[in-house]
Design a protein that fits this description.
single chain, 526 residues, alpha+beta, DNA ligase i, domain 1, OB fold (Dihydrolipoamide Acetyltransferase, E2P), 3 domains, seven-stranded antiparallel sheet, 19 helices, globular
Length: 526
């Protein structure tokens, strides 16, 4: 049934159809198979069964064709899994597999020698149709990706189990194993210590538009918008955990926070921004932070040259109590007490910016760069800590240039010394219906090393070819900056941007987190 589910999802571009397909699957399948499927959609994939060269060789031998013919077919199809699925002979006898059973078997066999892995692969190929083989090949080769956001999976689970989406989002945060755990345990356990490392879903701010006119010093609080990475620092018992917004546990990259853990006497979850600072505690750029990101074991010199700290602005849990349902003002008061008690430079309170009125707030925003900030955050003092991007209580007011997070959908080779590299990119935003619409083309802003990395990815993830243009999988997210924006009838998106360029490659963001087209339109000055 899993293969049929994937075919249904892949054959539709409508969000409601995908949610309904998952809901139907979750409703009739054995519950033991639900969490493994959720895990696949959440990026928790099985181990690779074979290397690319092994798959090619075994498929050539199984299909009894020459290598040149295989390569010709591969060049036309452009996808190894599809090429193999089409060239193999018809199955001896079609069988049905439970996805949990299949993933367990893949993980077990992946550890065996070449002959046993090859034998297992042949057995599966001989029992699946060409379409199902395609899905299996993706699954066993580490290339399984499907056009379903985590949010859609959560909607389907919410419909199936009649649980609020925000609760499911929280339950699916943190460390869980799609094979060792089960869906009932994950969704219905009432104890927070099922996984003491579990973070909370982040509350995200929306770009501000006309709402700015209603902001007042009485009801709203202003903070700086820091240009680092959003994190949650968790202290539970004697254990500590540092989670990025991309749901990556990054303790190993920032071992100095073990010292911070020793300075905090109570269990708590702190939401803030991870930043690099200099010796005078002045905030440095995001480029400086990149020197620390992705390092599994940073050396002493790296830690000394790029010291980090957290600028904290919210408290989500204190003494094992969930504080998200109390007001921001109350949460911040408790947060300030914890930071004062810790009294260590690794943890700072993100300062509140006092202002008299809107004109004063404009001035404070223009001064933001002096403090290493890229603008202001405006938060309603009475706001609860919600899940995801809920418009109305938290807004971000960035400095010029305007910017949005967009996903690459097309690429084209460049000119001159970059004539052999894909360097011209088309970026898209999502509509409320979940469709992608192109909004800008950009070719500047990446380093030579990044261009080569993106070029290699494009060649491996091309969907279709249109002369010199390649359509690619909508997966790479970039922050696109531009100087102006206006309504335009000539563009399908309805807007035109001026002087677009790439500000940075957002490896910390997923495609589900890109901006909506309405976010872009809201930036147009009336």
């Amino acid at each position: 049934m899993f293969f049929q589910l994937i075919h249904k999802i892949d054959s539709s571009t409508k969000t409601l159809d995908k949610v309904e397909a998952m809901f139907q699957y979750f409703s009739i399948v054995d519950e033991a198979d639900i969490l493994p499927v959720v895990g696949l959609f959440f990026g928790k994939r099985p181990k690779k069964l074979a290397k690319t060269n092994e798959l090619k060789l075994w498929a050539i031998q199984k299909a009894e064709i020459s290598e040149w013919l295989f390569e010709e077919c591969y060049a036309v199809a452009g996808d190894l899994s599809e090429t193999i699925s089409k060239l193999l002979p018809e199955p001896n006898q079609v069988k049905t597999y439970g996805i949990r059973e299949l993933i367990i078997k893949i993980n077990e066999v992946s550890k065996l020698d070449e002959d046993l892995r090859k034998q297992f692969l042949y057995e599966i190929w001989d029992s699946l149709s060409a379409d199902d083989r395609f899905v299996f090949n993706k699954l066993s080769s580490g290339g399984f990706r499907i056009g379903v956001s985590e949010n859609l999976v959560i909607k389907a689970l919410s419909k199936r189990y009649q649980i609020d989406e925000s609760i499911i989002t929280h339950r699916l945060m943190g460390n869980w194993d799609p094979i060792k755990n089960n869906i009932q345990e994950l969704l219905f356990s009432q104890s927070i210590d099922v996984d003491i490392s579990k973070p909370y879903p982040f509350f995200l701010a929306s770009p501000i538009g006309e709402e700015l006119n209603s902001v007042s010093a009485v009801d709203w609080m202003a903070e700086y918008k820091w240009d680092g990475i959003r994190v949650q620092f968790i202290k539970r018992g004697i254990e500590w955990f540092l989670w990025s917004r991309g749901e990556e546990l990054i303790n190993h990259s920032f071992p100095e926070f073990e010292i911070l853990s020793g300075h905090i006497p109570i269990s708590c979850v702190i939401d803030g921004e991870l930043l690099v600072v200099d010796k005078e505690n002045k905030i440095k750029s995001f480029n400086d932070l990149q020197k620390r990101l992705g390092r599994k074991k940073p050396g002493k010199k790296v830690i000394e040259d790029s010291p980090v700290c957290i600028y904290a602005y919210d408290l989500l849990e204190c003494d094992n109590l969930d504080l998200r349902s109390i007001s921001l003002i109350e949460r911040r008061r408790k947060l300030e007490e914890i930071i004062n008690s810790a009294n260590i430079s690794l943890l700072n309170l993100s300062p509140e910016i006092s202002f008299l009125d809107l004109n004063d707030l404009y001035k404070k925003r223009e001064e933001a760069r002096l403090f290493g900030s890229e603008g202001l955050m405006l938060k309603r003092k009475s706001s609860l800590y919600q899940t995801g991007r809920k418009k109305g209580d938290w807004f971000k007011w960035k400095l010029d240039p305007y910017s949005v997070d967009a996903v690459m959908i097309y690429a084209q080779v460049g000119h001159g010394r970059r004539a052999n590299l894909f360097t011209d990119y088309t970026f898209a935003l999502k509509t409320k219906q979940g469709n992608l619409l192109p909004v800008a083309k950009a070719y500047s802003g990446l380093t030579d090393a990044e261009i080569k990395e993106v070029d290699a990815w494009i060649k491996l993830n091309t969907i279709e070819k249109f002369g010199p243009v390649r359509s690619v999988k909508a997966e790479l997210v970039f922050e696109i900056g531009f100087e102006g924006i206006a309504l335009s009838e000539r563009h399908k998106s309805g807007v035109a941007v001026r002087f677009p360029r790439i500000l940075r490659w957002r490896k910390d963001k997923k495609v589900e987190e890109i901006n909506e087209l309405d976010d872009l339109k809201s930036m147009i000055r009336k």
